[in-house]
Design brief:
This is Aspartokinase. The protein is built from 15 helices and 20 strands. The protein is of the alpha/beta class and about 425 residues long. The structure holds adenosine-5'-diphosphate, aspartic acid and magnesium ion.
Length: about 425
Amino acid sequence: MALVVQKYGGSSVADAKSVKRVAKRIAEAKRAGNDVVVVVSAMGDTTDDLLDLAAQISPLPPKREMDILLTAGERISMSLLAMATNNLGIKAKSFTGPQAGVLTDAAYGKARIVDVVPHRIRRTIEKGQVAIVAGFQGVNQKEDDVTTLGRGGSDTTAVALAAGLGADVCEIFTDVDGVFTADPRIVPSARKIHRVTYEEMLELAASGAKVLALRAVEYARRYGVPLHVRSSFSGAPGTLVSGTYGDLIDPNAPDGDEQEEDVMEDPLISGVAHDRSEAKITVTGVPDKPGMAARIFEVVAASGSNIDMIVQNVSAASTGRTDISFTLPEGSGPSALAALRDVKGEVGYENLEFDDQVGKLSLVGAGMKSHPGVSARLFGAVRDAGINIEMISTSEIRISIVTRADSLDEAVRAVHTAFGLDSADGEAVVYAGTGR
Ligand code: ADP
Ligand code: ASP
Ligand code: MG
């Protein structure tokens, strides 16, 4: 008998009919002889709707109240799903994040899980019942208040519970058939990836491929939880996220030969991710002398903004001044700008520019470490599409570029084609969801 943690995303439980359909899948897994723990997200776009509602009440609501509001979404879906499962003759009980023992720090809105103590979930399984847990939420023990884990956080709940319970697998059910070489909503010719390492999935998730939340992948890698990303709308096998590139080429690993062969066949590139959630700040006319970059990024960090890419231009010899641009989450823009305005006199820069019409494309692949010419091919594809590159950054297995937001989709398609990733067997299916 296996212990399976299944997570169903919002688009899989968007209405009553979908909730009943998901209940059937849960019943099937249970009747097949498994112990089943389910994590569920809020129905459809409920979380976005709640955010919109709050914005109509208050521009900057207290974070504690915001989290109490948002956790309501998952309470609705968990109880309805438990009702639907019970209707099928399978005993099921729903639990909030705090009831399930998901303990977090106090960072409301983006709390980190510090421990999972799933006593009630264990007891439920021992009784032969299905436990249905509200994703995306936990409890800050110090204050005894509910917290949320950041957007897409139900994935993290599922992985943390799978690790805490020692589950055999964590299945992430969503509205596409797995992890693809690009978002199928933008690239219909994207190909399903059968297996991907934690490292590659981390880079894809960090670069905007929202099919898995970044923290969920981090957690899965830390605790070695294998993830199976698949569709709740079809029976097709999805994508297995497991292992590391190092394990795969370890000749002493079990089935070493076979695995080595697998790696030989692994493509150079795993996929192209895109992200529209960032903005760009440019600080112009910065005096080109030691300590200026340090000061600028000190104040930006103190404003609570996580920066991503940075570009510093060569200074113009005539003026001894330079421009520094960086990207950051769009929502952090106002506080970073305010912090920079406060040090205008001290740093002596000339101007601040804010640009939220940027998009980021990232090409990810473990194979690029050992293959020259990947950047040249990427830049060539973007040039041939007539699209300008505004910023570039790289890691060992990723190259990212910033373009105008309205050119991003076209750039993603051009790069996807240039690396031979287009599928020959028809279009990828997007079963549901609004892509919001
Ligand atoms: P859920 O509601 O199940 O959590 P999400 O909307 O969070 O679903 O994530 C699934 C969506 O992720 C897909 O519908 C797809 O548009 C998007 N996506 C982005 N990049 C990828 C990718 N590389 N592979 C698959 N889906 C992707
Ligand atoms: N409902 C939350 C969100 O929309 C959590 C999740 O879907 O994973 O971000
Ligand atoms: Mg999600």
